[in-house]
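Q: Hi! First time doing this. I have a protein sequence and I read that you can turn it into a structure. Is that right? Here it is:
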Amino acid sequence: MFRELTLFQMMEYLATLKGLPKGEQKKEIHRVLELVNLRDRADSRVKALSGGMVRRAGIAQALLGDPEVLLFDEPTAGLDPEERMRFQNVVAARRRKGVTLISTHIVSDVETLCHTILILNEGKLVTAGTASEIAQLAQGKVYLLPGSRETELRSAFFIKSRGEENGASTLRVLSPERQPGEAATPTMEDGYLCAIKGF
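A: Yes, that's right. Below is the predicted 3D structure, encoded as structure tokens:
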């Protein structure tokens, strides 16, 4: 974005590039700025906006003209939880208007927004399915155990997370082989990691 322009001027420029009729631009700009909670910053120069605001302005420009196809790359990176929820609501509200493709590593966005999930690894399609189908890829491959038993883990495992429960460390482990500890219900993130790791 051109840092010396105001946010409104920047949106006008982008609306012109998109071919929006001049007479419709003002109303449409205010509509999309309202959607991303930036209407009150329309007269601010782009250089005065925070990183998160610039990210939201990018989302607003994508929404200009209500296109049939939207492509977002890591759209919620750098957004606070409230703004991430606002983005999810905006995308959910336009489900019947067209196709939205989202490339992201933020699993909660995928679970909330996507009907179909494609998992790519090094540019190749690994698997596809709904959130519950992706979670099922980790069925029987998720184990919870005390951190004190880490040395008992056998080959082909991945420690997904370390936590604490009642003052003792805990591990959440993914593995295609039986591991010490108790089996756990898989999440979509577990399934994603199993797909990427070839479990």
